[in-house]
Amino acid sequence: QCKGILIYGRRRVKPGLLDVFKQTFSAHVAAVVAADSRVKAFFAFPDCNDSTAFYHVFMSTGCTVVGNDVLTGDELPALYSSTPECPDVLEVYGGWAQEVPGGAASSVRYRYHASLAGFIKSDGAGEAGPPMFGFTRRFVQPGQLDKLASNFQRVCDLWHERTPGILCATVSRSEDDPPNMVHDLRIFANKNAYDQHVDKSNEALTTAMHAWFECYDRSVPFEGELFIGRSTDEEGLHSSSIKTSTTARPQMAMYYFGPDMLGAVPDMTRSA
Fold first, then answer.
1. Mind listing the pLDDT tens digit for each residue in 80-96?
2. Spatial distance between the Cα atoms of 214 and 140, rounded to a whole number of angstroms
3. Other C-beta atoms lying within 10 Å of the C-beta of residue 23
4. Distance between CA 172 and CA 143 in Å, rounded?
5. How many CB atoms lie under 10 A from the CB of residue 103?
C-alpha cells in the first residue's frame, strides 16, 4: 500500500535569479516543514549538468492531496523559467487522490502515476538517517509488464516483512511514459537498510529477486538519480544488485546531502 504522496522532477530557474531562488526556496521549505510534521522530505539539488536546473523532491505521508501553496507558495513561481508552452514536468507517485491545481495555463505539467506494485510506508521505522532516495527509469521486456508487477510484489512483500528500514519500494507508470518503461523508486532509512535489501543467504528473497529482474530488458541501461549521505559507501550503487555481469551499466547521477542542497536533510522519523 502506498501511503502519502511523493513528487519528483526537474525545474528550471531563470538564470539571473539563482541566488534569489535559493534563498526563497530555502525559506519556503523551512516554513512548510515547520507547519506540517507529515512532510518528511522537501529539498532540491542543482543538476550536475545544468546549474540553472534543480531536481525537486517532496514527500508527505498521511495525506492524499497537495496544493501549490505547499509546493511553491506565492513567490517561487515567478523565479522558474518554465512557461505553459514549455512546462517543467513533475512526477506524482504514491497514494494521491486529487490532481494538483493547474490547468492549461500552468507552467508545470504533473504526470500522475498508477502504482503497479510495491509500498510507501507512513513512517521512518524509527531508524536514524541519513536516508537514501533513488529515482530510476527502467525498460521492461515487451509483454512482461504484468509479470514484472506480480514478481516485484512478491519481493516487496518480503522486504516489508523482514526489513523495516526499506521505506519505499514501488514500480509505476504514467500515461505519458514510453512503451515498456517503468519508474522504479526506493527509499531506505539509511545505508544499513540498503545493505539488507539483498541477502543471498535468504533463498526465498534471492529467488524472488531473480524472477523479478528477469522481466527487465537488461540490454538497456537504467538511468536515474540517487540522493544519499556523503559518507555512504558507493560500492554497489553503480551496478545491478542481482545481475551484475549481464546488465548494462546504469547511468546514475549521485547527489549528496550537504552544502550543495537546498532545504534540510530529510528526517523520515518525524511524527505526525
1. 999 999 999 999 998 77
2. 9
3. 13
4. 16
5. 7
